[in-house]
What does this fold into?
Amino acid sequence: MSTNSKLFDSIGIKPRGAKKAEEEARAAAECNWEGCEKPGTHKAPKGRNYEGEYVNFCMEHVREYNKNYNYFSGLGDKEIRDFQKESMTGHRPTWKTASNRAQEEIDPEKLRANPTWFNKVRDRAGTRATGSGTRQLKKLELTALKTLGLDDKATKEDINKKYKALVKLNHPDANQGDRSTEDRLRQIIQAYKQLKQAGLC
It folds into this structure.
């Protein structure tokens, strides 16, 4: 690369000797500790609301200063908690996202008192309860329920009960070895597997 290139000129490098000049300036500065006349060769942060500003101390006093330094001094517990919470988003504003109304309405106390209460909330939202919350049923799941002769409001117990009854009814052993219901039995087993995989039974 040519040293006459525009790219080369845009590289930000401190001029030669700038670092040395900075160190010499710090060495020339006195220690900011009251009553100390040693050179302030070490920088320490000023504190909250003075970000990017420093004070100079000698080695002995910078250690003492750092030992007692507390960024949150003068703040109450609530202010510290608020600061920590805001620091999670880099102190930028945040907004709540839209939420599923049905999930907000689920009250554990009501559910313990009346287990069927949850079904009413679920039906109102047009969703299905699963281990991970509520969601819309997929076409394959609806088809599998239809194969078992159930609707989308069927519970885990309904699915298991219906599956057992259909297997007993369509099994060749229950029909004196008649194999004409084998295809129907395969469909029932496949539908049950689909529902089980979806976490509905």
